[in-house]
Amino acid sequence: MEKTELRSAISLAGIFALRMLGLFLILPIFSMHAKGLSGGDQALLVGFALGVYGFVQACLHIPLGMLSDRYGRRPIVVLGLILFVLGALIAASHDDLVWITVGRAIQGAGAVSAVVTAWLADLTREETRTRAMALVGGSIAITFALSLVLASPLHESIGLDGMFYLMASLGMGAIMLAIFVVPNQEKVSQTPFVAKFSDVFFNKDLIRLNFGVLVLHAVQITLFLTLPRLLVKADLPLASHWQLYLPAVLISFVCMAPIIMISERRKRMKPAFLFGISCMMVAQLIMASFDSISPLALAVLIYFVGFNILEAMQPSLVSRWANNAKGTALGIYNTTQSAGLFLGGVLGGWVIQNMNEAAVFYLGACLIFAWLIIAWSMRELSVKVPQQV
Asked: Which domains does the chain show, CATH number per domain?
């Protein structure tokens, strides 16, 4: 990547990382902390407090993406991050489940993931875009792994209100990056709505990718609902799970990087894409078939290799097919991603309750196999994609 592209990728990955670290830190400890709050004994209310963030995001990804196509990425990102900080401050200042829910809903209104991704697409060339997206995906994966290590110690030392204040501080850092560090090279499109919304929504290449991200994140949620149970049964305590996740994430980056670079250099994205999907399916089948640490650790590594390849390639491909409607297309993409998170939680919870852990992994394998069939017909991208939407 050129110097400006590298600066763009690192700074925008930093925005993602600062924002997501705060969110991830809350997840491992919130349900336990909520038991001491008014209404915290009702699992539905606790789940709603956690899930309202994603629900509001799903409602606003598309309109914010469309606004960024018209008015530019930077002002929309800054506005979204201000809402993120405001929501964190509201949640931090009230030791009440209702107000924490309100705060998280306001945080969700800052739905800028699609806009940040579109911004990165604006600032990178097609031949380097997937590598730039991989940096963003890597930053998210690393913050997730760090959150598993840091959440419990931080909760013990500063409490939940302190963690929300920390989240607000991280959000302020992201605002500083957006204003002062991201290169000032973006241009507001002179033809912001070249394509109708319906043309973007029903574009078959984008539909294929949207289905893929729904499956990708539905399976992610079902995995993390189920895998911790298996690891505990395999005599790995919950507090030690990070010792498995963190090395798997780091090794997967080492494995994923050359695959991404070679596929871009040779203009052969499709084989890498299908390989990533296949890795995830194999990992699900291993987890369904074995319950000891060694095969589970191998399955987690294979899963993260596939996941990180797809997490990097999919938004890059969306931005290439979308052209002047990148914000709109990525808004739809991120909305579908949020729907996948919700679907995975509902399906995974129902299957665990009525069947068993292995059934969850077989369900994941079936969803991924359906994705593999759909992806098999995808077109290979040339160096410069003809305008699609």
From this structure: 1-137+148-183 (1.20.1250.20), 193-382 (1.20.1250.20)
